[in-house]
Amino acid sequence: MKTLAPGARIVVRDAEWLIKLTSRTFNDFLVVDVIGVSDFIKGRAAQFIKELEDDLEVLDPESTALVADNTSGYRNSLLFIEAHLRQTAPTGNDLYVGHKAAMDILPYQLDPAIKALSMPRQRLLIADAVGLGKTLEAGILVSELMRRGRAKRILVVTTKSMLTQFQKEFWMRFTIPLVRLDSVGIQRIRSRIPTNHNPFQYYDKAIVSVDTLKQDREYRTYIEQAEWDVIVIDEAHNVARRKSSSKASLRSKLASRLATRSDALIMLSATPHDGRPESFASLMNMLDPTAIANESDYTKDDIRDLYFRRFKKDVLEQLAKKFPERQVLAVEADASEQEERAFDVLDNLELVEIDAKASAGKLFKTTLLKAMLSSPMACLETVRNRIKRVLKKINLHYLSHRLIHFDIPWSLMALQQRNGRIDRYGQESQPQIRYMLTRSVNERVDEADKST
Fold first, then answer.
1. Side by side, which strands form the sheet with 179-181?
2. What H or E segment, with its residue span, contains residue 365?
3. 61, 130, 226, 397: which could join 427 in a potential S-S bond, CB 3.0 to 4.6 Å?
4. Which residues contact 159 (CB under 8 A, 6 or more apart)?
5. Minimal CA–CA distance to 427: which of 167, 160, 64, 130?
6. How many CA atoms lie within 13 A of 10 on its CB side?
7. CA-to-CA distance for 158 and 168, rounded, in angstroms?
8. Sheet holding 15-24, edge to edge
9. Strand boundaries in 25-184, DSSP class E
């Protein structure tokens, strides 16, 4: 048998492999690390023990048979050469494929990929404002990493409401297939593989909801033990460390563990900073644990290379007619007699159990008042459910340019997320955004409405 050495090609179990490394076990068996060459197992890594493989054959280059190319214009030979050239990974930082995606490329959307490719490891927070195309910017970078052979295994973690949209954007614009793994999908895979195998090794490119993972400890264990080339965390503000939310704490712990399972980490968020330096620092530390020494005291210079953030005004010249400036006007209306009576009832409301804690009672009365200023139905829903704070996120800029706020959320970030559903790249009409200010003769009610 010919010598087994790195670079040699072998045939084992009816498939062709390329030897990457050989080593000896403690009992002197020869272990051969290989990577697949045949179509069915191309790119897959494996190990074989020479002494246990009866059909192992080393291919002799000297026995290679030359076959004449009789096609017109040597077409087959040219295709063969072109295929090998395409398999050659680029070495520079220039873009090779990302700018050829099915999209109207704007120069600012290429900047994050250019910046990331100049880094030793592609670990970056893309924090452009709502509507500027963070998903597209991530797709450009992932495409470039795939072209360089550094993105074979990709994991996207996002919110449940964004799964379909993210999956659609990556496939239709970049032809990157992401297999959606929800609870049912994971169980289906587990039924096909041995019990000791990791279901997250089954597909190389997957997208999963962060809430699916945090609900099941076993899922988290599986995914934390898997290795990835690229991990994309969408809506990254949801995984920042916050003291006030136990759910966010679970997400934050999961994201922190995932951050160690991949060389490349791309985080996306239009609202990454909630005002607390510690919260934003938790995101930065996922990208680079050595960047910030004191999470309560750091400067932009400490983290300048870890994030990319632009607002609409920063790229206005490039957006042209595809992103017209929004027009926001306040429309005033006098409160009706029925509304005035309702305001008086709410203002004098006594909540026996809640008022046991003065601050809690005051806060809930304010919540009811704000809900009533939105609409009677909103106030009723608040009373029934103590408010359900979900903003479903559906992109409407191709269908609509008008948005009316029937209620005003507490969070300005939530308000901006809403506006961004119509005020984003691709909008061809001027976004028309309206919110109602109900004027009241009751001064306290009137002031509350103004503050809203």
1. 179-181, 205-209, 154-158, 228-233, 262-268, 123-126, 307-308
2. helix 358-374
3. 397
4. 209, 210, 211, 234, 235, 238, 393
5. 130
6. 29
7. 13
8. 45-49, 30-36, 15-24, 9-12, 57-58
9. 30-36, 45-49, 57-58, 123-126, 154-158, 179-181
Strand, coil or helix: 391: coil
Coil, strand or helix at 229? strand
Side chain identity, residue 172: M
Strands (E), 243-301: 262-268
Q: Tell me the pLDDT band of 360, cut-offs 50, 70 and 90.
A: low
Cβ contact 329:434 at 8 Å: yes
Burial class of residue 361 in the structure, from the number of CB atoms within 10 Å of its CB (0-12 exposed, 13-18 middle, 19+ buried): middle
When pLDDT is cut at 50, 70 and 90, the band that residue 121 belongs to is very high
Mean pLDDT of 73-96: 85
Retrieve residue 270's tokens: 């239009």
Closest to 125 (Cα-Cα) out of 305, 289, 257: 305
Judge whether residue 152 has pLDDT over 80.
Answer: yes
Q: Which residues face 23 on adjacent strands?
A: 31
User: Taking a C-beta distance cutoff of 8 angstroms, is the pair 178, 167 a contact?
Assistant: yes
Q: Nearest-5° angle of CA 393, CA 397, CA 399?
A: 105
Q: Say what the pTM is.
A: 0.67
Please, what is the angle between helix 376-385 and helix 358-374, to 10°? Answer: 140
| Strands, E assignment, 236-315 | 262-268, 307-308
| Stretch among 115-119, 352-356, 416-420 having the lowest mean pLDDT | 352-356
SS3 187: helix
Look-up of token digits 């200023």: 373
Q: What are phi and psi of 202, to 5 degrees?
A: -70, -45
Average pLDDT value over all residues in the chain: 85
Taken in order of first residue, the domains within the chain and their CATH numbers are 9-63 (no CATH), 98-318 (3.40.50.10810), 324-451 (no CATH)
Percent of residues, the chain, with pLDDT higher than 90: 34
Residue type at 74? Y
Residue type, 73: G
